[in-house]
Specification:
The complex is a heterodimer of chains A (548) and B (99). In chain A, 70% of the residues lie in helices and 2% in strands. With 548 residues, chain A is mainly α. In chain A, strands 4-3-5 form a three-stranded antiparallel β-sheet, with no helix packed on it. In chain A, strand 1 and strand 2 form a beta hairpin. Chain A starts with a helix and ends in a 5-residue tail after the last helix. Chain B has 99 residues and is mainly α. Chain B has a single domain, classed as Helix Hairpins (Orthogonal Bundle). Helix content of chain B is 78%, strand content 0%. Chain B is built from three helices and no strands. The chains are: A mainly alpha (548), B mainly alpha (99). Chain A: One of its GO terms (molecular function) is NADH dehydrogenase (ubiquinone) activity.
């Protein structure tokens, strides 16, 4: 930029705004988000004012009613046509109300609703001093093994704070895929990440591991969100605005020019580095290689109900945001980001599948499998066709319920030290409790993408879209890594059904109706989406148009 | 003064922060380096705001500060809890789950 233009900008820039206009907020269209946040705030008040013994019931009630009401609001909005014909941008350009947003928000709400059941489960762990306890620490602040912790357990404390935390996380996740400017994107990312960091630290058993998982997740998450923020700063510098449509107009060259814009848009480094850094931040949340390092440790250390929720809902939200960013802001940059995403998708699929083969812990195994699945979904993202959007939406809905169900099963297999997650302990589970093993086998087959399960329908849709979008090599790599992945899923099934149970093997806890419901919903969705996917494929297809 | 200089400073601060996250071993120091990265972003936002002559960047800087404050609350809580149970805040000691 020349010195004179800078000088004039320096002195005449920023005209004084004498008053701020009142923002126009479409409350009805934002109602799902508002309901969830209201329920979360109510949960905080419950925590503050209700006596300890009645908190659990109240918290579960508030959270469940909040999520159900928010889902009803989503259905009402979709019914009025906000997903298709009346799709538009609400809240002064900050939030999009369109098909993909409503579809993903609905999925996140359902996932959150089922996750509440696994959070509220109180029959799996043995009673502590006569009190039924859940998977969460008696008192998160107490040092593990200390007198303070023992006193807290004896007094029957439980961390009912997990329910408001879950609600805040769900609220942030609802905004994330609907965010229509980069600032909202960043704030939503933090709003759903911060509660997750805390939830990770609150396991009742293996507390040191749980705290370690939280530290790792927190430090790496904060690191990646700093990258995201710097990317946002560079994109803002390039385009002079953070709104998606504004940036895309500047990239396409249709925005009205002014001297400042002329000097920054000439600088492709701002755009390319900004784009790379924002994408990096989102790929971290998605768990794509090479930003996947946190996934196995955090999945293993976090309380299993939290892992299930995190693995499914975070992925839905983050892929929604990634789709919107790539399809709405950066379609003009397609030729720049596609080759990079090709590389990321290929290495994610292969690395996830290959490393998973060597795992000996069920939760780590599922973590690496989730990395491989992130690669499969990325293949659909890369298609850059309408089919690409709808197939990714469908895959996310199918995948999230399989994951939730699989982690719910993991909570059932226990020994004296809590959950028995080492794979060798699962040997012969099929002889001991055929039903649990069979249910887990269904989930594993769905992960592997065997026909008649939702995994097959999802994978087929994604690969078809990728092939249609001209990414045939990706499809070939995808099929190869699916085959590798199938190997270790089948190996677990063989281990469960065809090996002798050990004498001191783990027991399968008999869950209450809560976890049973969660697992049953997982199985039902897996089979329905596998046997009769057409209705849901059509739904995803109808929802697959972004508003600009 | 050329506003580009502020951008160079912000990129430099960001790099120092990122290098600190990768090199330093104490979780608190790592976390402070993350905060440095966020402040580098703020400087970039304010500079670009001046360059473009709109206030968006300055408003975003306030949002960043609020988010950074919230992050401090959560981060310090987690780091203090792990420090109290292990008597060490070194990120190298947190290796229960290493393969």
């Amino acid at each position: 930029m020349s010195a004179s233009s800078v000088h004039s900008l320096w002195t005449t820039a920023a005209p004084v705004a004498d008053k701020f206009p009142t923002p126009h907020i479409e409350y009805a269209q934002l109602s799902p988000v508002l309901i969830v946040f209201a329920a979360a705030a109510l949960g905080v008040l419950v925590e503050a004012f209700l006596p300890r013994r009645s908190r659990y019931t109240a918290q579960v009630g508030v959270a469940a009613v909040g999520l159900a009401a928010a889902f009803a609001a989503i259905v009402a909005l979709a019914d009025k046509g906000y997903g298709t014909t009346k799709a538009h941008i609400a809240a002064m350009g900050a939030v999009a109300v369109d098909g993909p947003a409503l579809f993903l928000q609905g999925t996140i709400l359902l996932v959150g609703f089922v996750a509440i059941f696994t959070f509220a489960e109180r029959r799996l762990d043995q009673r502590a001093h006569g009190n039924r306890v859940d998977s969460f620490a008696a008192q998160g602040s107490a040092v593990p093994g200390s007198d303070q912790e023992k006193a807290a357990v004896r007094a029957g404390f439980t961390s009912t704070e997990v329910f408001p935390l879950l609600m805040f996380a769900v609220g942030g996740m609802l905004v994330f895929p609907a965010a229509n400017d980069l600032l909202t994107l960043f704030v939503a990312l933090e709003v759903f990440s911060l509660p997750l960091y805390i939830l990770c630290a609150l396991a009742r058993r293996n507390r040191l591991m749980s705290q370690e998982a939280a530290v790792k997740y927190f430090l790496l998450g904060a690191f990646s969100s700093a990258f995201l923020l710097f990317g946002i700063a560079l994109l803002y510098g390039y385009a002079g605005t953070v709104s998606y449509s504004g940036i895309s107009a500047v990239i396409d060259g249709t925005a009205p020019m002014n001297p400042a814009l002329a000097s920054t848009t000439g600088n492709d480094a701002l755009l390319l580095i900004g784009l790379a850094m924002v994408t990096m931040g989102l790929l971290f949340k998605v768990g794509a290689v090479p930003f996947h390092m946190w996934t196995p440790d955090v999945y293993q250390g976090a309380p299993t109900p939290v892992t299930g929720f995190m693995a499914s809902a975070t992925k839905v939200a983050a892929f929604g945001a990634l789709l919107r960013l790539l399809y709405v802001v950066l379609p003009g940059m397609r030729w720049d980001w596609r080759p990079v995403m090709w590389g990321v998708a290929i290495i994610t699929m292969l690395a996830g599948a290959v490393i998973a083969v060597t795992q000996t812990d069920v939760k780590r195994l599922l973590a690496y499998s989730s990395i491989a699945h992130a690669g499969f979904i990325l293949a659909g993202v890369i298609a850059t066709t309408p089919d690409g959007i709808s197939s990714v939406l469908f895959y996310l809905a199918a995948y999230s319920f399989v994951t939730l169900g699989a982690f719910a099963v993991v909570t059932l297999v226990r020994d004296a030290g809590g959950e028995a997650t080492h794979l060798s302990r699962w040997a012969g589970l099929g002889r001991r409790s055929p039903l649990v093993a069979a249910v887990f086998a269904v989930f594993l087959l769905a992960f592997a993408g065997i026909p008649l399960t939702s995994g097959f329908a999802g994978k087929f849709a994604v690969f078809k879209a990728a092939a249609g979008g001209g990414a045939m090599p990706l499809v070939i790599v995808g099929v190869i890594s699916s085959a590798i992945a199938a190997f270790f899923y089948i190996r677990v099934i063989v281990l469960m059904f065809f090996s002798e149970p050990k004498a001191d093997g783990p027991t399968v806890a008999v869950p209450s109706v809560m976890t049973s419901t969660a697992i049953a919903v997982g199985v039902a969705v897996t089979l329905v989406l596998g046997l009769a996917p057409q209705y849901f494929l059509d739904l995803a297809d109808k929802a697959g148009v972004f508003v600009r | 003064m050329n506003p580009a200089n502020y951008l160079y400073l912000s990129a430099l601060l960001f790099t120092i922060g990122a290098a600190g996250v990768l090199i330093r071993r104490n979780a608190i120091v790592v976390f402070m380096c993350v905060e440095l990265m966020l402040n580098a972003c703020n400087l970039a936002f304010v500079t670009f705001s001046r360059l473009h002559g709109n206030l968006d960047g300055q408003v975003i800087a306030f949002f960043t500060m609020v988010v950074a404050a919230a992050e401090v609350v959560v981060g310090l809580a987690i780091i203090v809890s792990i420090f109290r149970s292990r008597h060490s805040a070194s990120v190298d000691d947190a290796n229960l789950m290493k393969l």
